[in-house]
Design a protein that fits this description.
The complex is a heterodimer of chains A (249) and B (395). With 249 residues, chain A is α/β, with parallel strands linked by helices. In chain A, 38% of the residues lie in helices and 24% in strands. Chain A has nine helices and ten strands. The chains are: A alpha/beta (249), B mainly alpha (395).
């Protein structure tokens, strides 16, 4: 099956978001993300890429348009939003680990509370996940005792522990020291290879080039270009894409 | 020794002016202490304390039922020893050794100094022993206790309170003792404990309401907090004595002691709410977003992610609030309740003890000071425990 034939897990139609003060951040965004696809969203700051990502799990409300995640339409209905959040994991720029819980408890909290699973089973799974991201020796430490890169890997494992169908990454390496960026990107690359559906907002060109199925360029609250990475980086069509690429390279 | 001498010299006699100031202050201090000792040994008549020690401690609590108070004390000592042991573990660091020695000396010497009968003297020693045994036993077992038990132990305090109140006030099977007979330290502690236990959940609730998205809840909390904080406690106490009577239907109106306890509670809740609000504000937005993104509902987010962090931040100011509340109970004497200060004033009104103010008030000050210091020390141990949480939850 080619990408175009796979059913869309995320379907975004004509989405607008504006604030009461008249600031219009999203201006009619259309986007489809297929099962097991990795989409990288790039764009200058203020282009609305993080905001768009945060609408996918209801952290941001939209004023107009439709978002359907895995067959569930996001609306004002809180139960719909909760249902979507169970299927969609999110990794933040600032990690947002819970500092008062150990690494292991950070992973165990949500599956037990939200999915009602048994604590011992989740613990077992959490330890396996921590091993997969390479930090199982730190399971009983607190987040404050870990480096930034380790914290971000814990955050990824925490999302995975909910067994989501989609993972959203909001600039996952922007708050990291340069030497720690690679360890996080490697984990993400492994996930992509394993067939996880991912939407990643990032400035990491190499990651976009090597891992993404499609690159989306946003500017001024609109999607200006969607293209496979090799095409996007070698012959961008839209003038805004050309301008953006010339600015960052 | 020479190092100490050099440090003293550097600190106190660095130059002639420093030396002069030091000598002047030392002379002043020496004179003050000499005068105090002279007064305490030669002029003060401590009979006023000896003769009224029971009154100051219990008020007019009936003699045949006093065994119930001993039982309450035993409960309190057990709970304190238990908490102490859980907080500190098997070791006995120096502050613990000092506290243990001070406690034993206090239990041994104070009843002696007060000329209490031998039976009572031995009871005090037994209580101190009970506390230290709990401290030792629980501290010894702590490493082997399951983590859920370590997390639940603060719940024994409300339990002790309920049991204690049942013993003090009477319950089915025990003869009731009306609040009008409680007095002295007993009444002060009953009022303070009630207010401590009730103002905390109320304050947390108010703080959450104040940050709520629902305008009615938010404005309700704001109006309540600002109204309470805008009035002095003493006016609220008088208001409570006079108003609760006709605001509430006849049968429901609590008697004077409980009316005052409720006013104290409602007053302290407003301040607790502000302390908790500061803690809530210190929790970054990202924490809430992460919890929501993981699918936790708003209640779970508050209970499991936001509040634990907020309360840790608010703990020092909460303890400050609790200490203030304890001291505020002295205002109860102004509305005619026989709390510690009220009892002291009634003792001083007795012609037999006329003019013995200094002795009585000094003892009162020392009593309050010890209670508040104990609170402060306990809270500092709790803070340290929370800061070193890693060792606490390691399996």
């Amino acid at each position: 099956m080619t990408l175009a034939e796979r059913p869309a897990l995320i379907s975004v139609r004509d989405v607008h978001k504006w604030y009461a003060n008249g600031h219009h951040v999203l201006r009619g965004v259309d986007l489809d993300v297929a099962q097991a696809e990795v989409v990288v969203i790039m764009g200058p700051s203020g282009s609305g890429k993080s905001t768009l990502l945060r609408t996918f799990n209801g952290l941001e409300e939209i004023q107009q348009g439709r978002i359907v995640i895995d067959g569930i339409e996001l609306s004002d209905d809180l139960r719909q939003i909760d249902a979507v959040r169970r299927e969609v994991g999110m990794v933040f720029q600032q990690f947002n680990l819970f500092p008062h819980l150990t690494v292991l408890d950070n992973l165990v909290l949500a599956p037990v509370l939200v999915r009602g699973r048994h604590k011992d089973a989740v613990r077992q799974q959490a330890l396996e996940l921590l091993e997969r991201v390479g930090i199982h020796e730190q399971a009983h430490k607190f987040p404050g005792q870990l480096s930034g890169g380790q914290q971000q890997r814990v955050a990824i494992a925490r999302s995975l522990c909910m067994e989501p169908r989609i993972l959203l990454f909001d600039e996952p390496t922007s708050a990291l020291d340069p030497e720690m960026v690679q360890e996080v990107l490697q984990v993400m690359q492994g996930l992509a290879r394993g067939g996880m559906t991912m939407v990643v907002v990032t400035h990491e060109l190499r990651f976009a080039r090597q891992v993404a199925d499609r690159v989306v360029l946003m500017a001024d609250g609109m999607v200006v270009e969607v293209a496979p990475p090799e095409q996007f980086f070698t012959s961008p069509q839209h003038p805004r894409s050309q301008q953006f690429l010339s600015q960052i390279s | 020794m020479t190092a100490l001498w050099r440090a003293l010299r550097r600190g106190l006699f660095a130059n002639p002016l420093d030396g002069l100031i030091t000598i002047a202050l030392l002379l002043l201090l020496g004179h003050g202490i000499r005068a105090l000792v002279h007064w305490a040994v030669h002029q003060a008549q401590w009979t006023v304390i000896k003769a009224n020690s029971t009154l100051l401690a219990l008020g007019r609590y009936p003699e045949p039922d006093r065994w119930r108070l001993w039982l309450v004390l035993a409960l309190l000592c057990s709970a304190s020893g238990l908490s102490w042991g859980l907080l500190r573990g098997p070791g006995w660091p120096r502050p613990d050794r000092i506290s243990a020695t001070a406690l034993s000396l206090l239990a041994g010497l104070l009843p002696l100094a007060l000329d209490l009968e031998p039976r009572v003297r031995w009871s005090w020693l037994a209580l101190a022993a009970l506390l230290l045994i709990w401290r030792w036993a629980v501290g010894h077992c702590r490493p082997a206790l399951p983590p859920w038990l370590l997390r639940c132990w603060p719940l024994i305090w409300p339990l002790v309170y309920l049991l204690g109140m049942a013993l003090i006030a009477g319950c089915p099977g025990l003869k009731p003792v009306p609040p009008t007979l409680w007095g002295g330290l007993l009444l002060t502690l009953v009022e303070a404990c009630f207010a401590w236990l009730m103002c905390f959940p109320l304050g947390v609730l108010l703080a959450l309401c104040r940050r709520s998205d629902l305008p009615l809840l938010r404005w309700g909390a704001v109006v309540y907090i600002e109204l309470i904080r805008g009035a002095p406690l003493i006016t609220l106490l008088f208001l409570g004595q006079n108003m609760l009577g006709f605001v509430l239907p006849g049968g429901l109106s609590p008697d004077r002691v409980w009316r005052a306890a409720w006013v104290l509670t409602l007053f302290a809740a407003a301040y607790v709410a502000e302390a908790v609000r500061a803690g809530l504000a210190s929790v970054p937005r990202g924490q809430i977003e992460a919890a929501r993104a993981l699918g936790l509902n708003p209640l779970q987010t508050q209970a499991r992610v936001v509040l634990p962090q907020a309360l840790k931040v608010a703990l020092p100011s909460l303890v400050g609030q609790f200490i203030t509340l304890f001291q505020d109970t002295t205002l109860l004497s102004l509305i005619g309740l026989m709390d510690l200060l009220g009892t002291a004033r009634s003792v001083l009104a007795n012609p037999q003890f006329l003019g013995r103010n200094a002795e009585v008030y000094l003892v009162l000050a020392v009593l309050f000071w010890s209670c508040c210091t104990a609170l402060a020390l306990g809270s500092r141990a709790l803070e340290r425990r929370l800061r070193h949480e890693p060792s606490a939850t390691q399996p």
